[in-house]
Amino acid sequence: MFGVLYLQSSYSMLKNAIPLPSLVKEAKRKGYDFIALSDENLHGMLTLFKEAKQEQIKPVLGLKINVSIELEETGFLVYVKTNEGFQNLLKILLLKSETELTIEHLVQHQKGLIFVTSGPDSIIDKSIMNGNEDIAFRYIQDFKQVFNHFYLGMSLDTFDHEMKIAPTLYELSEKTKVKLLPIHQTSYLTKDDREAYEALVKIDDEKNEMPKEANYAFLNKKELIKLYSDYPFIFDTLEKVIQSISYQWEQPKFEMPIYKVDNGTPYEYLKSLATVGLKKRLKKIINANLKEYQERLYYELSIIHKMGFDNYFLIVYDFVKYAKTHDILVGPGRGSSAGSLVAYCLGITDVDPITYDLLFERFLNPERISMPDIDMDFPDNKRDEVLQYVKEKYGDKHIISIVTFGTFALRSSIRDIARVMKIDTSRVTGIIQSVINDKIDTTDEEMTRLLKVAKSIEGLPRHTGTHAAGMIMAEQDLSQYIPLQKGLYDFYQSQLEASDLESLGLLKVDFLGIRNLTIIDDVIKTIHRLGKPFSLVDIPLDDSKTYELLSRAETSGIFQLESNGMRAVLRKLKPNTFEDIIAILALFRPGPMDHIDEYIDRRNGKKFSYIHPKLETILNQTYGIIVYQEQIMRIANEFAGYTLAEADLLRRGISKKDLTILEEERKRFVDKCQSQNYSKEIAEQIYDLIVKFADYGFNRSHSVAYSMIAYQMAYLKANYYPEFMTILLSSITGNEGLTNDYLNEIRKHQIQILPPDINTSTDQYIHTDQSIFLPLLSVKSIGRLTVQKILEERSLGNFKDYQDFKLRMKKDLNEKNVEMLIHSGALDAFKLNHKTMNYHKQIDDAGYEQYITDFKLMTTDEYSFAEKAQFEKEALGFNVLYSPIMAHRDIIKKYKLNTLDDLNHQQQVEVLAYIKKTKAIKTKQGKPMAFIELDDGMTQLEATLFTETFIKYENLLNKDVQIFKIKENQFRNKKTYVVEHIQPIDK
Predict the structure, then answer these.
(1) Measured over all CA atoms, what is the biggest interatomic distance in the chain, rounded to whole angstroms?
(2) 171 — phi, psi (to 5°)?
(3) Count of alpha carbons within 13 Å of 57, Cβ hemisphere only?
(4) pLDDT means over runs of 10, the chain (987 residues)
(5) How far apart are CA 353 and CA 199, in angstroms?
(6) For residue 439, what pLDDT is reported?
(7) For residues 86 and 61, is the Cβ–Cβ distance under 8 A?
(8) Neighbour count for residue 370 (Cβ, 10 Å)
(9) Angstrom distance (rounded) from CA 215 to CA 751
(10) Are the C-beta atoms of residues 651 and 697 closer than 8 Å to each other?
(11) Backbone angles phi, psi at 667, to 5 degrees
(12) What is the rounded distance in angstroms from the CA atom of residue 168 to the CA atom of residue 406?
């Protein structure tokens, strides 16, 4: 059994440049009989056993750890010897993430494990290097006494280890009778990869240095024998140790958590819940076909039971019930689960699959054994509450989060390596552009060297993260079967990623935190606080105000409908039914998007025909166009007699576009159609139609569920506009672009936007009557903690005046904070102009007025309008009061003035604006002219004053707000704008 210890893979992030599959293949190629993986984690555990089996090489699972000992650290390589050892390694790994490991921890969990000192970072090697052989001897004796299987790792990777440490280590081995094992830190495959490894460790910490004479390349059998030629016996010891290892990975069989039922079986309880739930649902469904619902329900229950998923449905039902009974909004559904009547009857989803013609087989296919996938949506500020409930009910080692890996992308790799190589950042940008444009200069040595190293680390794991939504649930204590570590929010986290966990048959449940649900929930709560009755489940799906809003494409802030492209489609479509929304969400994707215009034309009366009359009942909702995957399944069922489960397999197979599969399926499909008495010609045409749309087809269940959220938001916006927009604004605080867009829209609805107010505003937008106050949090330099301090102080009583405010907030604000509050308008309640307050912004001076009997604040003239507009924009990121449009609404209304934005569709406008910047120049003939930058509070635009106009209005160019007559002009095939007239507003 030949090989070496201390092999690591790229899972030892930023410390190794070898992908694990390459490591295993290289071990086999270089004559190793085993591969002892010694990463600092067990991320690669499953890959190790899978690759080793494929390469027919013995896998040895190990872990590199550091342990605290006498105020120092020492390293060990720990290898699994038996099944009990694997259990103990998992325990040590978990402890490693929770606390600082000690020798006592290792001793407590040592059964079935082999401990080997790790060379360079072993306290024994360090003691020898420092000339303290007695101390090294004592540690060896101590470790020998407490560990059942303990060995000394001998490294010869550096000159110091070979010449100074190894001879002494050999003597101590002989003296203590503790045997030596060969360890070779393997960090890259060949000497050519050394530079990539050195770059990696410097990305981790630029102070990291690799010893110049060190060789951490993957050594072959011949090289290893030569390296250890002075200690040939070391391989005999190694062979005995490896042969003593009996542990073999066996895939455990996991089960879902058992939902405990007081009486009867989980199936009986599930059936009773679903039956009662159906009765409740049918009360609200007009003219429901009871028999159809009952047959569908019992069919689904039988499949669920047959596939062993009774507990799964009960578990999801239970935490959804918890959410709904604890004031936590639950999404109407997501993905194919909306096609389940059982889920609908249990309240897991709020989409009736029969009303919307959704197929259960698209969700759970009895002919394709796979785990069910019910993804649940919760408000993003309530998701963790649901997770805590589930953890408390089933146990913290029965529900765990999932690790994810951030990897090196080429562009980020280039920047990282360039930083290590000390290449100027401006040059790096150019190199990246060269890569993007595929214009690499092969004669540029610096560039080629950089790209070679960057490409060699591309795709390697860089850091770990947490899966955004997925949680793993199991009846078994997962800490006994898979490697865990401490994760976020007191949850344990698997060190295996999602694909590994699913390959083990573990159940993944997605708990998604959705901002849009938070908005819906907050709007509903606001409506209730206003004393208005409202129930989300009872809103009508034919509300005219909602469809009018959608037809106008006033969909800012509405889930799935906010993009410019979608708005353009809505204007053309002018949806007037819920089916329109479902279809357009399914069509608005690359590929099917090409059929949108045809869909709209047919909807508006364009004639079309069906290949066969029986297609009409399947495709009439979408005017003869296949939009949904379920339609493909229906067609296969109708024409070829496939069961819906078989039809789902057909759809999946065709969508892979594998020519062999396509031809095999064609023959089978045509034969089955002919057996159903359809002609071969019709069968071929129908099959070609399916193939054409198999890629385009969208999951109708998913589209219906998403359309429900989109419609709910549109309904709230159409019927409760101020409440909706106030909550929407609070949800995007800090996003200046979106905030400005939403504020401009609100103004068009004749709702006044007010700046933050120090005695009224909070950390949220506030709606009062026909006004909306900005939050204090919208002021630059004022963070959440500062706002909290202001609110705490204000709870003791409003701020009386400017001096009172500064005095009371003296400890929590600085001059920059005060200045930004002034310019934002937050301190206008103190009835002082901005320039006066800014002159007295020194907060340290606050309080001296208490000692002066005749104290009076010195006042100054105010800033100009343009200055206040500029300062306000600096403080908020946009203008509220000092926008020409807001400050002079009466003039704009009286004279029906335009905006600068109107120049996008008008050739001439009259607009109220102020000049932000003026650039006067001389023409070639020496005549004066100017370029001015205009701002109307929403749009900025550059316009030209030609000589005659410039001379006429030169004396007005330093004025504040004026009326400008502007005309579109063409100059060198480019659109420009010319000022024709300027009118002071006081005239």
Answers:
(1) 106
(2) -60, -40
(3) 25
(4) 94 95 95 96 96 96 95 95 97 95 96 96 95 96 96 95 95 96 95 91 88 91 94 96 95 92 93 97 91 96 94 96 96 93 96 95 83 88 95 95 94 88 85 83 85 91 93 95 92 95 90 95 94 92 97 95 94 95 94 92 94 93 92 93 90 81 88 94 92 87 96 97 96 89 87 94 92 95 95 96 92 94 96 94 73 72 88 91 78 88 89 90 93 86 94 87 91 86 86
(5) 56
(6) 81
(7) yes
(8) 9
(9) 72
(10) yes
(11) -60, -45
(12) 43
User: Residue holding tokens 């050594």?
Assistant: 219
Domains of the chain and CATH, by start: 5-244 (3.20.20.140), 266-400+467-516 (3.30.1900.20), 409-458 (no CATH), 542-714 (no CATH), 732-876 (1.10.150), 884-984 (2.40.50.140)
CA 293, 297, 298, 302 dihedral sign is positive
pLDDT tens readout for residues 905-952: 899 999 999 888 899 999 989 999 999 999 887 788 899 999 999 999
Closest residue by Cα to residue 312 from 387, 262, 258: 258
Q: Which residue has the tokens 């089996």?
A: 53
Residue 163 contacts by C-beta under 8 Å, 6 or more apart in sequence? none
* DSSP annotation of 5: E
Given the DSSP bridges, would you call strands 461-473 and 928-935 parallel, antiparallel or unpaired?
Answer: unpaired
Give CA separation, 323 vs 348, 377, 527, in Å: 11, 11, 20
Tokens, residue 365: 């296919």
* Alpha helices in 732-880, H assignment, sequence order: 736-748, 784-794, 802-808, 815-824, 834-839, 865-876
Both tokens assigned to 513: 């935190």
Q: Which two tokens stand for residue 374?
A: 């019910």
Give, for 27, the enclosing helix (H) or strand (E): helix 20-29
Query: Which helix (H) or strand (E) element contains residue 318?
Result: helix 310-324
Q: Report yes or no: 243 and 1 within 8 Å, Cβ to Cβ.
A: yes
What distances in angstroms separate CA 789 from CA 56, 758, 782, 796, 845, one per listed residue?
Answer: 65, 12, 11, 12, 20
Residue type, 293: Y
Element (H, E) at 920: strand 908-922
Measured CA to CA in angstroms, residue 462 lies from 315, 404, 405, 458 at distances of 36, 11, 7, 10
Query: Strand 961-971 and strand 940-945: pairing?
Result: unpaired
Neighbours of 411 (CB within 10 A): 15
Q: How far apart are CA 93 and CA 495, in angstroms?
A: 10
- Rg of the chain over Cα atoms, rounded to whole angstroms, equals 36
Structure tokens belonging to residue 428: 């790096």
Q: Are 709 and 533 in contact (CB under 8 A)?
A: no
Give percent above pLDDT 70 in the chain.
99
Tokens 């555990």 map to which residue?
A: 45
Question: Apex CA 466: angle with CA 461 and CA 467, to 5°?
Answer: 100
Reading the block at residue 465, the tokens are 């993260």
Kind of pairing between the strands at 180-186 and 150-155: parallel
Distance CA 410, CA 616 (A): 50
Q: What would the two tokens of residue 644 be?
A: 């819906």
Say if CB 915 and CB 933 are below 8 A apart. Answer: yes
C-alpha torsion angle, residues 184, 187, 191, 192 (rounded to 10): 170
Measured distance CA(436)–CA(726) in Å, rounded:
43
Distances from the Cα of 696 to the Cαs of 273, 563, 602, 631, 810, in angstroms?
Answer: 37, 21, 19, 12, 62
Tokens, residue 855:
């104290």
- Residue 975, strand partner residues: 970
Rounded Cα distance, 980 and 93, in Å? 77
Q: What is the DSSP string of 278-299?
A: HHHHHTTSTT--HHHHHHHHHH
Pairing verdict, β 399-407 and 492-494: parallel
Tokens of 762: 């909070």
Distance from chain centroid for Cα 628:
27
Which pTM was predicted? Answer: 0.84
| Whole-number pLDDT of residue 852 | 61
